[in-house]
Amino acid sequence: MLITGFPSDVFGTNCYVVAAAPGEQCVIVDPGIGVSQRLDEILAEHRLQPAAVLLTHGHLDHTFSVAPVCGAKGIPAYVHPADRELLADPAKALSMDPAQLFGGRLTYSEPDDVAPLVDGEALTIAGLEITVDHAPGHTGGSVLFRLPAGAARGWDADEVCLSGDVLFAGSIGRTDLPGGSMTAMTASLRDRILPLADDTIVLPGHGEATTIGRERATNPFLLEVMRPAPTRGL
């Protein structure tokens, strides 16, 4: 399996390309702001043909280039229904208008072909089997994408998890923007993240790769979730 990626120049959002092998079809995960040129270079380098764009959630820094990428390649975008409206109006998840945020220099459009992500489904795309886990908290429609690690990058692991902005190395995604919820995030960490195997490779939406075992041992947010509830005396 081939997994490669790079951070965007704006917000450092990680855009990933996943394929069964070089020369095959691929999926693109979270094409953010200003990624088109670098993305085309990676596709050409590995002789890849995109089959779909997968979105971990609907925030603009993860979705900005989805319409031009999908339009140029003639492919669908997949997003959880709870974040579908953010593809039409990303301002609904921001504390300010996008034009105000970027000084009016960036123009956004939504993709023409949008398909829903369903919790627990196994998507079969581009020769890959990708399991979708709904993990709200950062946004209402945040998801994890899990797939067998295979021989990707020589990793000694059974599974890779593209965690979006649910889990980072040493941290988690913020929950204070519209659609965020710390209560939902805590449940997602407990029910979606902690059950994963320690050797699971985590490829986050921002920052460096990590493992579930490392985060289980050191991430303060996971440690808080794992802390036993206080007992009450009679």
Automatic annotation (TrEMBL):
<dbReference type="InterPro" id="IPR051453">
    <property type="entry name" value="MBL_Glyoxalase_II"/>
</dbReference>
<keyword id="KW-0862">Zinc</keyword>
<dbReference type="InterPro" id="IPR001279">
    <property type="entry name" value="Metallo-B-lactamas"/>
</dbReference>
<keyword id="KW-0378">Hydrolase</keyword>
<protein>
    <submittedName>
        <fullName>Hydrolase</fullName>
    </submittedName>
</protein>
<keyword id="KW-0479">Metal-binding</keyword>
<dbReference type="GO" id="GO:0016787">
    <property type="term" value="F:hydrolase activity"/>
</dbReference>
<dbReference type="Pfam" id="PF00753">
    <property type="entry name" value="Lactamase_B"/>
</dbReference>
<feature type="domain" description="Metallo-beta-lactamase">
    <location>
        <begin position="12"/>
        <end position="206"/>
    </location>
</feature>
<dbReference type="InterPro" id="IPR036866">
    <property type="entry name" value="RibonucZ/Hydroxyglut_hydro"/>
</dbReference>
